């Protein structure tokens, strides 16, 4: 077993953060990581959420804020509904505590790969647009291109790496960052990125032009023309400038996603008000809207909600919405 020192803290002490522990070869590492995860879930949610239940309504009520995030996304606080975990099995169980009243169900409607779709629209890259218009699995399509293999022969590992590339490049990820995320050498990661841009030249052109435009005008724009200012884009501090350049690439995607879901929320509320339906739109979590409605009308309302979200804004490729229904939030996923 290798227990040699892998990382140090800023004060020179042995580091025990997640990254450092993962480098150690010892069976206790998994137990420590599991303990930390469970402790955080317990203190952040199991103990904290019940204390925030409103005595009058018997429910949790979050506060949404319009002007906290730089991209214009809504943020949530007291409690924060937007960071309730879903990726781990134990974390996802927290969502099962969000239940519907008797006779009602929870409906969750989630935009599918919306930021990649916005990238396809903004960049105008024909290969990316074609993949979405043909209703292809865009991660498998990217894997096929990057790894030069038939789409039917793409492995799970290749798709996983392609997914990391697709989303990583939207966030301005470097070869070093990609290498770290998918556990390959920096040289190999650079080859993957080069292969990606060779097959999606429109994306590369968009990124380069966006950086230059951001430097000259000091802001980027969403698809609806909302400006996202970048005060550090011409900073003499290279670290601040590099961060601003990465933000310049990602902000139009996240900002446009925020615009689209807000437009969808307005359209849906107008529809609910017009028809006087018994539907409560009670939660927004990034690209997802969550509703409580009558069980007997759920299937019918689901079709209308999906159509309203899909048509919130017309892009060069369709907006896809995944809808789930259940007695609680977890079941609706």
| Strand numbers in spatial order across the main sheet | 6-7-3-8
Q: Tell me how many strands there are.
A: 8
> What is the name of the CATH class of one domain?
Mainly Alpha
What is the CATH H-level superfamily of one domain?
5' to 3' exonuclease, C-terminal subdomain
Do you know the CATH architecture of one domain? Orthogonal Bundle
Biggest sheet statistics: 4 strands, antiparallel
- Strand fraction equals 5-15%
The average pLDDT score comes to 89
Order of helices and strands: HHHEEHEHHHHHHHEEHEEHE
CATH fold-type name of one domain: DNA polymerase, domain 1
Class derived from helix and strand content? alpha+beta
Could you give the distance between the termini? 41 Å
Describe the protein's architecture and organization.
There is one protein chain. The chain is of the alpha+beta class and 333 residues long. Among the domains are: 46 residues, no CATH class; 127 residues, DNA polymerase, domain 1 (Orthogonal Bundle), CATH 1.10.150.20. Helices cover 49% and strands 12% of the residues. The protein is built from 13 helices and eight strands. It has a four-stranded antiparallel β-sheet, with helices on one face. The protein has a two-stranded antiparallel ribbon with strand order 1-2. A hairpin with a 5-residue loop joins strand 4 and strand 5. Helix 5 crosses helix 12 and helix 9 crosses helix 10.
């Amino acid at each position: 077993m290798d227990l040699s020192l892998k990382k140090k803290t800023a004060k020179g002490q042995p580091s025990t953060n997640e990254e450092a522990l993962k480098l150690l070869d010892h069976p206790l590492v998994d137990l420590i990581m599991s303990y930390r995860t469970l402790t955080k879930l317990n203190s952040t949610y199991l103990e904290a959420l019940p204390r925030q239940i409103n005595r009058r309504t018997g429910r949790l009520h979050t506060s949404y804020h319009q002007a906290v995030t730089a991209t214009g996304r809504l943020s949530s606080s007291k409690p924060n509904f937007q960071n309730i975990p879903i990726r781990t099995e134990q974390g996802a169980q927290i969502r099962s505590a969000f239940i519907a009243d008797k006779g009602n169900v929870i409906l969750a409607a989630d935009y599918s790969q919306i930021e990649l779709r916005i990238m396809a629209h903004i960049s105008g890259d024909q290969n990316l647009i074609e993949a979405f218009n043909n209703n292809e699995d865009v991660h498998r399509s990217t894997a096929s291109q990057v790894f030069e293999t038939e789409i039917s022969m793409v492995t799970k590992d290749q798709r996983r790496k392609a997914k990391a590339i697709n989303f990583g490049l939207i966030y301005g990820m470097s070869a070093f960052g990609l290498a770290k995320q998918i556990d390959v050498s920096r040289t190999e990661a650079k080859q993957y990125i080069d292969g990606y841009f060779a097959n999606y030249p429109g994306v590369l052109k968009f990124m380069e032009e966006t950086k230059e435009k951001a430097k000259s005008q000091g802001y980027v724009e969403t698809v609806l023309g909302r400006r996202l200012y970048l005060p550090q884009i011409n900073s003499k501090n290279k670290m601040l400038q590099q961060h601003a350049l990465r933000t310049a690439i990602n902000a139009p995607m996240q900002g446009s996603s925020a615009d689209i879901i807000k437009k969808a929320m307005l359209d849906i509320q107008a529809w609910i008000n017009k028809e006087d339906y018994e539907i409560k739109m009670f939660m927004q979590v990034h690209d997802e809207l969550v509703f409580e409605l009558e069980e007997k009308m759920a299937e019918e309302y689901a079709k209308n909600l999906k159509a309203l979200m899909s048509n919130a804004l017309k892009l060069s490729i369709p907006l896809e919405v995944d809808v789930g229904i259940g007695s609680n939030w977890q079941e609706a996923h």
